[in-house]
Amino acid sequence: MKHFGVLLTALLSLALPLGSAEGQQSVDTALESDYKAGLLLLGGDGTPASIDVIQAIKLFQGAAAKGHPAAMAQLAIAYSDGTAGFTKDNGEAQSWALQAIITGIEEYAKTSPAGQADLAALYWKGLGVSPNSVKAARLLEAAANQRNLRAEDMLGSLYQVGDGVAKDLNMARDLRERAANSGFASAQLHLGGMYAKGDGVERDITTARQLYEKAAIQGDAPAQNALGALYISGNGVEKDYGKAREWYLKAATQENSDAQFNLGNLYRLGHGVERSYKVAREWYTKAANHGDKDAQNGLGNFYATGLGVEKDYGIAREWYMKAANQGDANAEWSLGCLYANGLGVEQDYRVAREWHLKAADQGHASAQNSIGALYLNGRGVEKDYRIAREWYTKAANNGNPEAQFNLGSIYLNGLGVERDYEKAREWFGKAANQGDRDASNTLKQIRGK
Question: H helices within 253-341, ranges in order?
Fold first, then answer.
C-alpha cells in the first residue's frame, strides 16, 4: 500500500480552501476531463488504434492523485485485475478503493453513469466495500439505462453467470450486442467469447473471430491475445503461427501478461519462430512479474530443469512458491517434489505431502500419484497400501500413466489386496497404451498368467 501516504496528503490538501469558486470549478473540470479521456482510451471508440491502456492509466493516476474518486476506483480495478502492466495486488486494490469511497465516489455516482459503473465494479469485486453483486447489478442497470457502454457490457457479464441477477443468456447477449454495435471493444471481445463457446448463442467461430478482430484493431489487448489463440489452434482459421505471434506481440507490448506468456510458449516450442529458451524466459519473466501464475510456474520449470539457464533449485522454488501461493496446482505439485527429493531444500516428506495434497485436491493427477507413492513407501506417513491404492486409483482414473502402472503393480504383487492378474493386466494395458515402456514390458512378462 505504498500510495496510501501520498493519497492521504493529496486528500488533505484538497480539503483546504482553494481560493475562488471559479478556481475550484476549474480544478474539478480538468480532473473530470482527464478521467473521461482515460475511459475513452480504455474502452475505445470503434476506430482503429483508439485504445491506449497505458496512457489511460497515466491519466487515472494523475486525476486520482488530485482527488478524483472514480479515477481512484479505476486504479483499484487495475490492481485487482493485474491490467495495464500492474502486478495483481489486492492490498493496493483495496487501498485505492477505500480512498475512492472516502473521497466520495458514492456521491459522484449519483450524477455520473460512468461513476455508477466504477462503483458497481467495487461492489462486484468487494474492493473497499463488502461484496454485493445485487447492488452492483442495480448500479449497472441505472448506468446501462443511460447507454453507458461499459455498464452494458458489465451487466451482460452478471446476466451470463447469474450473479446479482437471474441468469439470462439472452439478456447477456442483447446487452453486449448494444455495446458492441456502438464500438465498445470489451463488449465485442465478450460477445465473441459467447459465440466461440456457444454460450446462449449458436456456436459460430467465424462470428467470434470477426468480433475479436473489431476489438483487436482498436487495440484491445485481450482481444488481440484471443485472436492469437485462434491462429494457434486453427479454430475457425487456418493455423498460422506467424499470425499468432503478430497478435500476441501486439498484446504483449501493451503489458498483457497472458499474451506475454503465450509468446514465451512460441519461443520455447519453436512454433513459427526459431526456438530460443532465452527469449522464452524473457517473456515468461515479464508475465511472471505481472503476477501471471502460469509464467511463474514456467520459470520454476526452467530453473528446475536447467532449460536455457544454469540449474538452480533455489530460484526454481522461489518461482514455484509465487505460483503456488496463487493456487497453481502444477506449482504446488512441483514444490512437493522439491521437498520430497531434497532439491534446493532440506528433504521433508511431510511438507512434500502438504503441497501434494493442495494440488491433488484440485484434481492434479501427478500429485495424486505422488501421494500414493508416499503411502506405499511410508515416507512422512505410516505405510498404508490401502490409502496408496486409493490415491493411485484417483490418479489412474484421471489418465496418469505412471499411476496406472503403479496400480497394476499393486494388483500384480498383492499389496494390500488379493493378487489379481486380470486387474494388473488391465492397468498395465492402460499405461502401455499411453506409451509407458515399463508397462509394456511387464505385460509381456505376465502374459498367460
Answer: 257-269, 277-289, 293-305, 313-324, 329-341
